[in-house]
Amino acid sequence: xxxxxxxxxxxxxxxxxxxxxxxxxxxxxxxxxxxxxxxxxxxxxxxxxxxxxxxxxxxxxxxxxxxxxxxxxxxxxxxxxxxxxxxxxxxxxxxxxxxxxxxxxxxxxxxxxxxxxxxxxxxxxxxx
Length: 128
Known about the structure:
With 128 residues, the chain is mainly alpha-helical. The chain has helices at 2-24, 43-55, 78-87, 102-114, and strands at 117-118, 121-122. It is built from 4 helices and 2 strands; from the N terminus they run H-H-H-H-E-E.
């Protein structure tokens, strides 16, 4: 009986330590790009931020993980971002053209790319 209890305690302790390590090993990247704040001087990027704040920020706060995974570190090409927005996946809802117009979607994609690219430096992926 003591052997079984000791095994249970050791397994629980091991899982606890593993969980703490997983939490501590998360990405250090947070809301702002690695090289500074997003440049909103481009009107398309500024409009994209407004679309993001209206439709995406609730689940992806600042592009980070929240209720949904982080999106500020994904080097997806434009067509995949647009496909994801239009069709959704898993818990993510789809956004039809009546919710996010094609022009707004273009602006949103440019903003999402700007989250990775600022001051001529790239976080991941390719130049927008």
